[in-house]
Design a protein that fits this description.
Strand content of chain A: 15-25%
Structural class of chain B: alpha/beta
Structural class of chain A: alpha+beta
CATH architecture of chain A: 2-Layer Sandwich
Number of domains of chain B: 2
CATH topology of the largest domain in chain B: Quinone Oxidoreductase, Chain A, domain 1
Number of helices of chain A: 6
Shape of chain A: globular
Radius of gyration of chain A: 14 Å
Largest interface: A-B, 13 and 16 residues
Oligomer: heterodimer
Number of domains of chain A: 1
CATH class of the largest domain in chain B: Alpha Beta
Order of helices and strands of chain B: EEEHEEEHHEEEEHEHEHEHEHEHEHEHE
Largest sheet of chain A: 5 strands, mixed
Largest sheet of chain B: 7 strands, mixed
Number of strands of chain A: 5
Distance between the termini of chain A: 11 Å
Helix content of chain A: 25-40%
CATH class of chain A: Alpha Beta
Strand content of chain B: 15-25%
Radius of gyration of chain B: 20 Å
CATH topology of chain A: Nonspecific Lipid-transfer Protein, Chain A
CATH superfamily of chain A: SCP2 sterol-binding domain
Distance between the termini of chain B: 16 Å
Strand order of the largest sheet of chain A: 3-2-1-4-5
Shape of chain B: globular
């Protein structure tokens, strides 16, 4: 069974977590990438776009079912894997080599953030714990 | 003599039974009265045109029967001998045969691509006297066929013909993919993508080799259930979960020691490669259309140090390997009888193809 029963469940958990990021200490990380990032999920099919706003860090918008013709970066992955990734359980390099995550765009801009994501992983785990499994 | 045979005249069209003239066996050939012929996805590839071969053609390449006539110079098998028909008429003389790879024999490949016997030409003629080609020097979907004597391999007469027929292709191919190409060793973890006719034999081969975890990946519940009965320890539905992630989870995050693909699509080939552990092996036994390409991650090649290879007929030397398989069958290690849940007449060949693709029958068999 997939972690997220449907698109709404994914948006209600992972999307809701993403929306907490601009207000937290991690928002500036997103801006350092330098452009929109489109996440495409499978099982369930869903899309979330991170769009840095002109106002500068830490503000960025989270769009659902987004159609962004030219995002700076695209990541495509199974939703179960995404759920694990944001908990810090996935080695990105290994997942790319296994085609569990497919990336397009200047990947180096995202890769250099990886060492700084530990607090974000912790934040997602705490976010999940705070919900008591709701939506999963 | 005339016999009924399943003939494909146009790609994508239904096959039909025709009455054909069967010429006498030539030098080094025998005529086999076919008792049973397995229905394989490779036959279907010919029907769809994914495996383009000369038409019209008599289909069928795994069969069993009894020798009823021998051509000049044939000393074995003898008339009356029960045989399995192999589709690999290796010459024994070319570079590949001489170096221990009869499965890659260049003369056999030449004959197969032209739908003829190694001795030249086909032994079938239609009602207008035009040649009807012969699938892989076999053409077992018929009441009788003329095949190279070296492809008529003796088996004990008490092996049921419907089970013996499977030995001719799916068993040699599937078990060979695990035992020879995959070199599965005791205690290893194996992932098998596709639990159809060949994939189920890969699973049996892995079990015989001593694999302790065998993960079957297939969309069809009937096939997953059969895979578990035949030795798979786990079954994964790739329509429900990412199969690569599932294999990683079931192997402690490491990946399969050996991942074997028995479907024949670029996606499942990539998934098999991706599910193998670092330093592991991926084996492709499924047959893709000749123009298909597979996309795998370039970084994975140096960073994960895997081996990816494939095999044609499970790297088998049928004359060498068949006796071992018969012994496994007799000892109950190789289970064949339960795979043949449905038998079809030649006229029902189209229905047999449907039963195979739907998963309704693990191995459909035609009984002339």
């Amino acid at each position: 069974m997939a972690i997220f029963a449907d698109k709404e469940a994914l948006y209600g958990v992972l999307g809701a977590f993403f929306e907490t990021l601009p207000a937290g200490p991690h928002g500036p990380l997103i801006h350092r990438v330098g452009g929109p990032i489109l996440f495409t999920f499978h099982r369930p099919e869903a899309r979330i776009l991170w769009e840095p706003l002109p106002g500068g860090p830490p503000e960025f918008a989270v769009h659902y079912d987004a159609e962004q013709p030219e995002p700076l970066l695209r990541f495509e992955q199974d939703a179960d894997l995404a759920h694990r990734f944001w908990q810090g359980e996935v080695d990105l390099q290994d997942a790319l080599a296994r085609q569990q995550i497919r990336a397009k765009g200047p990947l180096a801009r995202a890769m250099k953030l990886i060492p700084q994501l530990d607090p974000v992983y912790l934040a997602y785990r705490q976010f999940l714990a705070g919900r008591g499994g709701e939506g999963l | 003599m005339t016999v009924r045979a399943v003939v494909l005249r146009e790609y994508g069209e239904p096959v039909r039974v025709e009455r054909l003239r069967l010429l006498p066996p030539g030098p080094g050939e025998v005529r086999v009265r076919i008792a049973a012929s397995g229905v394989c996805h490779t036959d279907l590839h010919v029907v769809t045109g994914d495996l383009p071969l000369p038409l019209p053609m008599v289909l069928g390449h795994e069969g069993a029967g009894v020798v009823e006539a021998v051509g000049p110079g044939v000393t074995t098998p003898a008339v009356g001998q029960t045989v399995v028909v192999s589709w690999m008429p290796s010459c024994g003389e070319c570079f590949w045969c001489a170096t221990g790879r009869p499965d890659l024999c260049e003369r056999a490949a030449y004959a197969a691509a032209r739908g003829i016997l190694p001795g030249g030409g086909t032994r079938w003629l239609d009602q207008q006297g035009e040649p009807v080609y012969q699938f892989s020097a076999a053409g077992t979907m018929a009441e009788a066929a003329v095949v190279p004597a070296a492809c008529a391999l003796p088996v004990p007469a008490d092996v049921p013909p419907t089970s013996a027929a499977l030995l001719g292709c799916s068993v040699l191919t599937g078990t060979g993919a695990a035992l020879r190409t995959g070199r599965v060793r005791p205690g290893e973890q194996v992932a098998v993508f596709g639990a159809g006719g060949v994939g189920l034999q890969v699973i049996q081969g892995a079990r015989i080799a001593g694999a302790t975890r065998i993960i079957a990946v297939d969309r069809l519940p009937e096939r997953r259930a059969m895979a578990l009965r035949l030795g798979a320890t786990d079954a994964v539905d790739p329509s429900e979960v990412d199969p690569v992630l599932a294999v990683l989870d079931l192997t402690g995050g490491r990946g399969a020691d050996c991942a074997i693909e028995a479907v024949g699509t670029p996606e499942t080939i990539a998934a098999a490669f991706n599910s193998a552990r670092r330093g592991g092996r991926a084996v492709v036994v499924g047959v893709c259309p000749p123009a298909a390409d597979v996309c795998i991650n370039a970084f994975a090649l140096p960073s994960q140090g895997k081996t990816i290879t494939g095999c044609w007929y499970g790297e088998s030397d049928p004359a060498r390997d068949l006796p071992d398989l018969v012994e496994h069958y007799r000892a109950g290690r190789l289970r064949l009888d339960e795979l043949v849940t449905r038998r079809f007449a030649l006229e029902e060949a189209q229905a047999a193809f449907a039963a195979m693709t739907s998963g309704a029958s693990p191995r459909a068999v035609l009984v002339p």
